[in-house]
Amino acid sequence: MRTKIISAVVLGLGISSAAVADTEAMMQAAGAELFNKCTACHTTDTSKNAFGPSLVGVVGREAASLPRFAYSDALKNSGITWTEENLRKWIAGNDQFVPGTRMRHVEITDKAEQDYLLAYLKSLK
After folding, report:
1. What is the C-alpha to C-alpha distance for residues 42 and 115, in angstroms, rounded to an integer?
2. Residues spanned by the domain of 50
3. Which pLDDT tens digit goes with each residue over 84-125?
4. How many domains does the chain have?
5. How far apart are CA 32 and CA 35, in angstroms?
6. Which residues pair with 81 in a beta bridge?
7. What are the residues facing 62 on neighbouring strands?
8. Residue 109 maps to which CATH number?
9. Residue 11 near residue 99, CB atoms below 8 Å
């Protein structure tokens, strides 16, 4: 949705759709850089989990739904689907969003950094 809105505004200003694609690519690249912090525990390999589950396809997925990973009871019972809004809450403070989760505390409160990370996570399909 955000990309469509940006596209409409940008095109209305006479900026090409290629510029919009470049913006999205830049956001994904910035998100990939931020994701480097996450790779200590998470993988982008769909065939395996690491200390944390693979994050390929995480956007739109039900929480605690990947096989072969021992999720906390708190996350298994959360009923969460990883929408952009829920991922943003998780990124801003996972231990506040889902008390009792086993994942160590994460706190990225800068909205731009959240946007970058979400753009990258959406690209993992």
Report:
1. 19
2. 2-123
3. 999 999 999 999 999 999 998 889 999 999 999 999 999 999
4. 1
5. 5
6. 62
7. 81
8. 1.10.760.10
9. no
